[in-house]
Design a protein that fits this description.
By secondary structure, the protein is of the alpha/beta class. It has two domains: 1-39 and 223-271, no CATH class; 48-213 and 273-458, Alkaline Phosphatase, subunit A (3-Layer(aba) Sandwich). It contains 15 helices and 21 strands. It has helices at 17-24, 31-39, 76-79, 99-102, 121-130, 152-159, 224-238, 242-247, 255-265, 268-272, 280-286, 290-303, 334-359, 425-435, 440-445; strands spanning 2-4, 7-9, 52-57, 84-86, 93-95, 108-114, 136-139, 142-145, 172-175, 180-181, 184-185, 201-206, 210-212, 308-312, 366-371, 375-376, 388-389, 393-398, 407-408, 410-411, 418-420. Strands 13-12-9-14-3-15-18-6-19 form a nine-stranded mixed sheet, sandwiched between helices. Strands 1-2 form a two-stranded antiparallel sheet. The protein has a two-stranded antiparallel sheet with strand order 4-5. The termini are far apart. The model is unreliable at 1-43, 138-146 and 241-257 (pLDDT under 50).
Length: 459
C-alpha cells in the first residue's frame, strides 16, 4: 500500500502513474534532485593543490578606473573624484575607498588588461562565466543564447565528482539569486552541454531570514511527515515493473535519496548553511548585509570542501533605485553610489574573506577570483555615470598558488584599451581549470573545446 497525503492506492506494479508524477512534483528534493546526486558519483580531475574555487561575481560591471586601475594623470572627464592610495606593495595603488584591501595587496594580484567581445550584460555575462563566446550572440541589442558552453563551475563540478562524500553537499553552489538582465535570466550559469545534472545548487541569503535553499525548501502545504511517505514510495519505485523503470528520467534512488533528504531534514550538510554558529565579531567583520553574509557562507562552504562556490553580488545588474537589487550598472550617480555603498561594502567583505581564509590555513588551497562581466567607460557621461565598456577592465585573484603583490597586464593612459598582456575571460577560465587539475584531454572527452591560455605570471 502506498500513501501520498490522504490517498492510498495499489496496483500490480506497486505505483500508479499519478503517484509517480506526484513524487517528482514536490520540487527538486524529489526524483530529480536525488537522482542528480547519484549521477554525480563519477569523476576525473587530476590531483591539484586547489581544493576549492570561489568566484566573486560583481554583476553589472564595476568601473576599473574607480577601483583597481585608477588614472590620476588623466583629464577630469576621465579620472573621477577619487584619489588613489598607497598599498602594502610598493608601486601598486588602488582607490582610496578600498583601504582594507590596500593593506592586503601582498595576498592578491591585480589583472588590468581584461577585455571581452560584447558590452551587453547577458552576452558578456555568459562569456565571463563560461570563458567562451560560443552560444552567445547579440542581435540588435537583444540577447539570444544558443547552446552555451558549460560554465566554469559546472566543469569543475564534473571533474570533482568524488568530492563531498562525507558532508553530502553539492559540488557547485551559487550563493545568490539567478542572474538577470532586466527581467530575463542570462545563460551561462549552468551545465550547458554537460546537462542539467551539473547546474549549480543555489543558496540565497536574506538579511532577515538567513540562508535559504529554494531547491529543497518545503512548500507550505507539504507536511514533514509526507516526506516519509515519499521515501516509501520511492523505494517502491525501485521494485516497479521494467515498463515503469524505462520511463524514469534517471536511475533508481536508494542512498542518494537519503543524501537529498538529509540536506532538508538534519545533519552536517544543513548545519553548513546556518550562520548562527558564527560569532558576532566574525559576522560583523564580514558585514551584516547580503554580500557580506553571502561571503561568510562561502567560507563555510570552503571549509566543507565544496569544489566551486560562486557568490553573486546581486541578481540584477541595476541599482536598487532602478528596480534592481544593488548591481554595478551605474549609468548615473556612479560616484555617489560607489562612495555611499558599493566600495566600502566590497572593501570590508572581500578583505574579511581573504583574511579569514588565510587565518584558517585555507587560502593556499582556495583560488579566489573577483570580477564582473566588463568595466565602465573611462570617459564620464553627462549624468555623472559611466556606461558599459568591454574593451578594458580589471579583476583580482588570490590564493590557490597565486603570488600576491603582482600586477598582470596594463591599460593605456586613459584606461580605454589594454596596453600590455591583453587577457580574456577565456584566459581566466583556462587558469581556473588548470589549477583545478582539469586537463585539455579531459575537456575534449566531454566535447568541451579548450579555450584561452593559463596566466602563468600569477604563479
Amino acid at each position: 500500500m502506498l500513501r501520498i497525503g490522504r490517498e492510498s492506492q495499489r496496483n500490480c506494479q506497486g505505483v500508479t502513474r499519478r503517484e509517480f508524477l506526484q513524487a517528482g512534483s514536490l520540487g527538486a528534493l524529489g526524483l530529480t534532485w536525488a537522482d542528480l546526486l547519484r549521477l554525480r558519483a563519477i569523476g576525473g580531475a587530476a590531483d591539484s593543490p586547489v581544493r576549492s574555487v570561489v568566484l566573486v561575481w560583481l554583476w553589472g560591471g564595476p568601473s576599473h578606473l574607480d577601483t583597481f586601475d585608477m588614472k590620476p594623470a588623466a583629464p577630469d572627464e576621465y579620472r573621477g573624484p577619487f584619489t588613489l592610495t598607497r598599498t602594502r606593495v610598493s608601486g601598486i595603488h588602488i582607490c582610496e575607498l578600498l583601504p582594507r584591501l590596500a593593506k592586503l595587496t601582498d595576498k592578491y594580484s591585480i589583472l588590468r588588461s581584461l577585455h571581452c567581445a560584447s558590452n551587453d550584460h547577458g552576452v558578456a555575462g555568459t562569456i565571463g562565466l563560461t570563458g567562451s563566446i560560443a552560444g552567445s550572440i547579440n542581435l540588435g541589442g537583444m540577447t539570444a543564447v544558443g547552446s552555451a558552453r558549460p560554465c566554469t563551475g559546472s566543469i569543475v563540478s564534473r571533474f570533482r565528482a568524488s568530492s563531498n562524500v562525507t558532508t553530502m553537499l553539492p559540488r557547485f553552489i551559487v550563493v545568490g539569486g539567478r542572474l538577470h538582465q532586466g527581467k530575463k535570466p542570462i545563460a551561462g550559469e549552468g551545465g550547458g552541454k554537460l546537462g542539467a545534472v551539473y547546474d549549480p545548487f543555489r543558496l540565497e541569503y536574506d538579511v532577515d531570514q538567513g540562508a535559504k535553499a529554494p531547491a529543497i525548501a518545503l512548500a507550505e502545504d507539504v507536511p514533514v511527515a509526507r516526506l516519509d511517505d515519499r521515501r516509501g514510495l520511492l523505494r517502491s519505485l525501485d521494485q516497479a515493473d521494467q515498463r515503469i523503470e524505462a520511463r524514469r528520467p534517471i536511475q533508481s534512488l536508494d542512498g542518494f535519496y537519503d543524501q537529498a533528504f538529509s540536506l532538508l531534514m538534519a545533519g552536517p550538510a544543513k548545519k553548513t548553511f546556518d550562520l548562527a554558529g558564527e560569532s558576532d565579531a566574525v559576522r560583523d567583520r564580514y558585514g551584516r548585509f547580503r554580500f557580506g553574509q553571502s561571503c561568510l557562507l562561502a567560507r563555510r562552504l570552503v571549509e566543507a570542501a565544496v569544489p566551486f562556490v560562486q557568490v553573486n553580488w546581486s541578481a540584477h545588474v541595476e541599482a536598487e533605485e532602478d528596480a534592481g537589487d544593488g548591481g554595478w550598472d551605474m549609468h548615473y550617480r556612479n560616484f555617489e553610489v560607489l562612495q555611499d555603498r558599493h566600495l566600502w561594502m566590497l572593501d570590508q567583505t572581500l578583505s574579511a574573506f581573504l583574511e579569514d581564509l588565510d587565518a584558517r590555513g585555507l587560502l593556499a588551497s582556495t583560488l579566489v577570483l573577483a570580477v564582473g562581466e566588463f568595466g565602465r567607460t573611462p570617459k564620464i557621461n553627462p549624468h555623472a555615470g559611466r556606461d558599459h565598456w568591454e574593451k578594458c577592465y580589471s579583476a583580482v585573484m588570490a590564493g590557490g598558488g597565486v603570488v600576491g603583490g603582482r600586477v598582470v597586464g596594463s591599460s593605456d593612459a586613459l584606461g580605454e584599451h589594454p596596453r600590455e598582456r591583453p587577457l580574456t575571460p577565456a584566459d581566466l577560465a583556462a587558469t581556473v581549470l588548470d589549477r583545478c587539475g582539469v586537463s585539455v584531454a579531459g575537456l575534449q572527452q566531454f566535447q568541451v573545446q579548450p579555450e584561452g591560455e593559463v596566466i602563468r605570471e600569477l604563479f
